[in-house]
Specification:
Length: 135
C-alpha cells in the first residue's frame, strides 16, 4: 500500500510525540493488516487506469471497486464471524461487478482489452482471497 497516503505512526523513544516512521511499524487500523484490502485498493487503481469512456459503465466500475475496498475495511473491523463474513461477501460481489463493468466496456470498445485483463486479474485474486473469509 502507499505509505504516502497511509503513513504509519509510532511513538519515538526519545520523545512522547508521534512521528511518521518506516513501514516496519504495524499499521494503526485493522484493514491495513488485511492483505485483501491492499488488493482491493490495487483493483480500484486499475479500474481508474482503465479510463472507461462510457460514463455509466465507468461510474458503475468505480463505485463497485470503491465498495470492495470499503467492505474489506468493514469486515476487518467487525468482531463476530458472521458480521465479518457478510462484509467480505459484499466485497467479493463488488469486486466481481467492477471487473464485469470494465470487461463489458472493453467488449463495447469503451476500454482497452489489456486494461480489462488487468482488472480481471486483480478481481480474481481478490475473490480468491475473500472466498475463505466468507465461509
Amino acid at each position: 500500500m502507499n505509505d504516502t497516503l497511509f503513513p504509519r505512526v509510532s511513538s519515538s523513544s526519545n520523545s512522547s510525540s508521534s512521528s511518521v516512521s518506516s513501514p516496519s511499524v504495524s499499521p494503526a487500523l485493522p484493514h491495513h493488516r488485511l492483505l485483501a484490502y491492499g488488493v482491493a485498493v490495487e483493483l480500484l487503481l486499475a479500474v481508474r487506469r482503465a479510463s472507461v469512456r462510457d460514463a455509466k459503465l465507468r461510474d458503475e466500475a468505480l463505485r463497485s471497486a470503491k465498495s470492495a475496498c470499503l467492505n474489506c475495511a468493514e469486515g476487518a473491523g467487525r468482531v463476530t464471524r458472521g458480521d465479518k463474513a457478510r462484509a467480505f461477501a459484499v466485497a467479493r460481489a463488488e469486486a466481481t461487478e467492477a471487473a464485469a463493468a470494465v470487461e463489458i466496456a472493453a467488449l463495447c470498445g469503451e476500454a482497452s482489452a489489456p486494461s480489462a485483463a488487468e482488472v480481471a486479474r486483480l478481481a480474481s485474486r481478490l475473490v480468491a482471497m475473500l472466498t475463505p473469509l466468507v465461509r
